[in-house]
Amino acid sequence: MCWIITAGYQESIEKMTKISKQDLRLATLILRFTILLQCIGVYFQLRSGSALEGILFMEYGLDQAAAKKIENAIALVFLLIGAVTFFRSGKVLIMIIVFLFLFMAVLIQRQAGSPFTDCTVFAHAARVLAPLGLFLLVKKDFHTRKIIYFILVLGLGITFITHGMEAVSLHPYFLDYLITSFQNLAGVELDQHHAERILQIIGSLDILLGVFIFFVRNKWLLLWMAFWGLVTASSRITELGWGMYPEVLSRAAHFGIPLTLIFLDRCIKKETEERVR
Amino acid sequence: MPKNQILQSLLLAIFAFTLVSCKDKQSDRNIEIEVAETAPRHVRVLWTEQPSNHAIISWTTLHSKGEMHRIVFDTVSRKDDNISYSFEVKSKRNGEITMLDMDYEEGVPTGYFHHGEIKNLKPSMKYYFKVESDGQFSKEYYFVTAPADDRQISILWGGDSRLGGEKPIYAGRTPHLGRQDMNKRIKALMDENEEILAFTHGADYGSTAEWRHLFWWLEDHEIVVGKDNRLLPLIISRGNHDYAIGFQENFWLSTITDEQNFGYYYTTQLSPQVTLITLNTEISVAGNQRVWLEKQLAENRPNKRWLVTHFHRPAYPVVKDYEAHTFKRVREAWVPLFEKYNIDLACESDGHILKRTLPIRNGKPDETGIVYIGEGGLGVPQRTADTTRWFIQPPGFAKSADNVHLIQFRTDSLVVRAIGPEGNVLDYYGRIPRIN
Ligand SMILES: [Fe+2]
């Protein structure tokens, strides 16, 4: 993609029309909010115990209290950076967040100990690439916006495809989200056989959506992905209650990125039209 | 500038990824495996549903799969006379144990699994056996089948034997001293007490079920050979560090593995009055397994004096977050059934601590409720409990100590002792039967 950047276009935001500026502001706002939610979610996840403490204590022989302190400190870093980047554009801070999200994904994958942890880095692509998108969004030229669009699509697509493959492979947690959520929300006893078939259909759709998004730029497709990202992230709550909210927040990119993409795409389209004119 | 920033970001990300993926390359393992050693090793007996008349015998060969593998057995000892055994069965499953790059890097030898089944056994009988791979016989071992009468019996139960030792990062490369100490204690207990029938493992054998971890678990398990080569049959469960294919390869449970693949839940009839239900927290807990569990509880509770369950992830964790999804799903799916059918004891692992909860019903202390013991101490580094949790207030408790539980099923009482590596009794709990 480097050729796009070096093509020499260094347009300033002042050249954009009022409408495309609005779209860009909305996209930026949604992405900032998404990252804030992610950071709050991860803050609570780390506070309640994560792979980090497990690895420090179990593998590196660190005192459990010291491991917990480090974990709490990193939780606080997530929270602080999430809050700061919501209000202002600190490039260094955003890059730290990118690094931390990637770091957490690698740790979970390395520690294993949950179904499909081998895929964690891919499953977390959306939450890792969301702040990278914001990092670049700070640059205000047209071609960088195209790259951001691609980066966010990449994160969203990989996450959808990975979750789709986990669903098709009958991830046991996903099965229980379905079975228990059906019971809790509709009072319907869903047996495992039917839950498995539904999960395979859902998984196949997720894979298709994850692939489509690379080729199709469609508002309705993105809206559906935002809706579906929210529904699947919220399945932890429908299964086990409101106490599961950190699980939903940490997956904010699953619905935040598609919403961001809708406005970013509008902005890019309008700008392209203007350039043609 | 954007080009530079993107490159910087990518480089930083790659650097971070590489940094955390790096592992310690120390190679100070002091247990040498003889390259030429192809005789059967890791000989073990596994119990599943009807241990009074059935057992699985498994072993490993190194370096070579071999052609012919069989078990010879008898109710009398034949010592060095390999041809006088009255019975023989061919192994049912033989295959190469999956090796990953890391297994090769860790220097574990290529291994081959062999599993056979012996059926139509007599209850409370000593069975002497040898395994043979291409003319190489193991030592003669024996085990005792479960009784068909209502005698007093005991089992050992404990979980979590991964990592540990002086340099814990890759136990195995350095000896897992904690696990070895606990295995020595288990051996001592079985030698002291012939009433102990089996060793029930609450899972998380190694950090993964890949060969570099399971190999060393099996090597260490060879400590648990009692007087006159008595073997203590294993009743196994699957934990969150046992996902890898090596688990199915090394712990084959006949039809249970063949039909359920990843399932590993089953009911063991330890005696006519003692039922042990092994559950699997690593698969769906709300689907087929829950339906199956309710059926087992409904069938067993009315006519069994003692009904005990064991599983890996705890419903009532004393270290990790009580509200975490991993534990809450177990609490929501199974605990209502435990309470509905009034099981006598629930055994949990995973937390790396010793605990006994108050009797619990409907999420609060209740004298008629269920006691949960645990939570993993077969040599794994011990954590510290959150002592503020309501369910471990006195007479409940939690303590950081390696442990194995001796569970004694008497006709008039159930007695549980938590025992430390030195043989010291760390906890004592007893209860009377719920039914006459
Ligand atoms: Fe565990």
Largest interface: A-B, 49 and 44 residues
Strand content of chain A: under 5%
Q: Regions of chain A with pLDDT < 50 over 5+ consecutive residues?
A: 1-12
Small molecules bound in the structure, each named once: fe (ii) ion
Structural class of chain B: alpha+beta
CATH class of the largest domain in chain B: Alpha Beta
Total domain units of chain A? 1
Brief account:
The complex is a heterodimer of chains A (277) and B (436). Chain A has 277 residues and is mainly alpha-helical.
Provide an overview of this structure.
- The complex is a heterodimer of chains A (277) and B (436).
- Chain A is mainly α and 277 residues long.
- The two termini of chain A are 25 Å apart.
- The N terminus of chain A is likely disordered.
- The radius of gyration of chain A is 20 Å and the shape is globular.
- Chain A has one domain.
- Chain B folds into two domains: 105 residues, Sandwich (Immunoglobulin-like), CATH 2.60.40.380; 279 residues, Metallo-dependent phosphatases (Purple Acid Phosphatase, chain A, domain 2, 4-Layer Sandwich).
- In chain B, strands 13-14-15-16-20-17-21 form a seven-stranded mixed sheet, with helices on one face. Chain B has a six-stranded mixed sheet with strand order 12-11-10-22-23-24, with helices on one face. In chain B, strands 3, 4, 7, 8 and 9 form a five-stranded antiparallel sheet that branches.
- Chain B is built from eight helices and 24 strands.
- With 436 residues, chain B is α+β, with helices and mostly antiparallel strands.
- Chain B is globular and about 60 Å long.
- In chain B, α7 packs parallel to α8.
- The longest helix of chain B has 20 residues.
- The N and C termini of chain B lie far apart (82 Å).
- In chain B, 53% of the residues are buried.
- Helices cover 21% and strands 27% of the residues of chain B.
- Classes of the chains: A mainly alpha (277), B alpha+beta (436).
- At the A-B interface, α5, α7, α9 and α11 of A face α1 and α8 of B.
